[in-house]
Amino acid sequence: MLTERMNERLTQVGPGTPMGTLLRRYWYPVAALSELKANPTKAVRLLGEDLVLYRDRSGTLGLLEASCAHRRVHLLYGIPEDNGLRCPYHGWLYDSTGQCLEMPAEAPESTFPSRVQIKAYPVEALGGLVFAYLGPAPVPLLPQWDVFVRGNVLRDVGMAIVPCNWLQIMENSLDPVHTEHLHRYFTHYVMERLGKGKDDPKYWRFAPEVRPHVKIGFDVFEHGIIKRRVLKGDTEEDANWKHGHPIVFPNMLHDRGGGGFQIRVPVDDTHTLYLWYICHAGKPGEDVPAQADEDIPTYRVPMPRLDEDGNPVWSLMDNNSGQDNMAWVTQGPISPRWLERLGESDKGIILYRRLLEEQIRVVEDGGDPMNTFRDPEANVAIDLPSEGRSGDQSWRLDLQRAGGVGTGSSGKYSVINREVAARTGAPVPAE
Ligand code: FES
Ligand SMILES: [Fe+2]
Questions:
Q1: Which of 223, 275, 383, 393 is least enclosed, having the fewest CB within 10 Å?
Q2: Confidence band of 384 (pLDDT split at 50, 70, 90)
């Protein structure tokens, strides 16, 4: 249980708040390059600030405050030029530092443009995503996690704006036992609601048998927390315990088997941009088709909703993402943690809250928090431990060929999964 004051301290992300100050020390993905290829501007809200991301005609990326300094028109409608973004209303032109370069209606010799600058933030592209940094100088290096730089994979990116605070989403990742209930026992109930019987061959792929947790454990390591579990029938020699599953501080879950990240981007106190960034590998020794970073497809993951009678739309509940989304959103816009009753199985959540508090203090004391990279030599294909190392879980395409499109993570909606299904005739779960 946390006090109301502690709950505020861990959940408020605006400028000047303790958590907002810590979170501003990290880079966040705000768009896929393919989105800017389709439309060169994108409205972005990040850490409570309204911004516009753009790519100009020379290819330069910029992130500006959303409103034009002149008379506040939204720059989402801005016109990309060779050297910046031009406001649609009276044509003021801004470069990627926010400096105004031109004011067409003022006299050519006017010095007014040089005296106008709007807020602008650094952006960098990596692995098909555009990352933004809203914190203080010196700007840390954008971490080169292996997932973003590895070759010979096909990537796609699921996206959703989840209407709740980022912290309750992260806490889900420190809560291994929910998988046994929410993603297993509850799935059997969802199958019942959907009228699927246990004699349906697809039933057991969507709703595998419930395997209780015998043991859970957590270790802080240099990049975050490793969670471990032993399921009934397994031992500590199995990968789930021996290698574990890393949570990358402060806001990412390494996807099972090391095939990607689930990234939680704090939009404001009550909204989170969720990215399912997935690398689909081929079989060992197999080359997958080449894919340019700006062609990595995106797809939308739907939020849980009710039908006109106020009943859950159950077809959205037959996959991990739908189930997790439901859990996060129904905890409320900001979960009232002072009403919680935590048990022994919540020890990972308690550890993560302590780590957040510790890192808030590191920043308050003038230090660099966990996962700050400043040495380029240490920032090369940063690898993470993964339970996939000892098994074959990374080879998603191969698994899909064998068994059809998975329902784990956002598999049900994944563009690449659906392409594979179309090629192989593998079954795809209904929307
Ligand atoms: S409002 Fe942008 S140029 Fe006038
Ligand atoms: Fe989950």
A1: 383
A2: confident
Pocket test for ligand 1, best of 52, 76, 92 (most atoms within 8 A of CB): 92
Question: Ligand 1: distance of its center to the CA of 68 in Å?
Answer: 6
- Sequence-distant (≥ 6) Cβ neighbours of residue 189 within 8 angstroms: none
State pTM to two decimals: 0.94
Same domain? 295 vs 265: yes
CA of 326 to the centre of ligand 2 (A): 10
Contact 140, 372 (CB under 8 A): yes
Q: What is the CATH number of the domain that holds 182?
A: 3.90.380
CA pair distance 319, 385, nearest whole angstrom: 26
Kindly state whether residues 97 and 235 are assigned to the same domain. Answer: no
Looking at the fold, whether 123 and 168 belong to one and the same domain comes out as: no
Q: What DSSP string runs through 113-154?
A: GGG-B--EE-EEEETTEEEEE-SPSSPPPPP-BHHHH-SSEE
Q: 166 and 115, same structural domain? A: no
Q: Whose CA is nearest to atom 3 of ligand 1?
A: 90
Pocket test residue of 52, 65, 71 for ligand 1, highest count of atoms within 8 A of CB: 71
Instruction: Give the number of the ligand closest to the Cα of residue 326.
Output: 2
* Residue for token pair 């044509």: 91
pLDDT one-digit tens code per residue, 230-272:
999 999 998 889 889 999 999 999 976 667 899 999 999 999 9
Expressed in angstroms and rounded, the spacing between residue 388 Cα and the centre of ligand 2 is 18
Same domain for 126 and 259, yes or no, is: no
Residues 183 and 153 in one domain: yes
In this prediction, residues 303-328 reach a mean pLDDT of 95
Distance CA 245, CA 226 (A): 5
Q: Domain count of the chain? A: 2
Query: Amino acid letter at 402?
Result: A
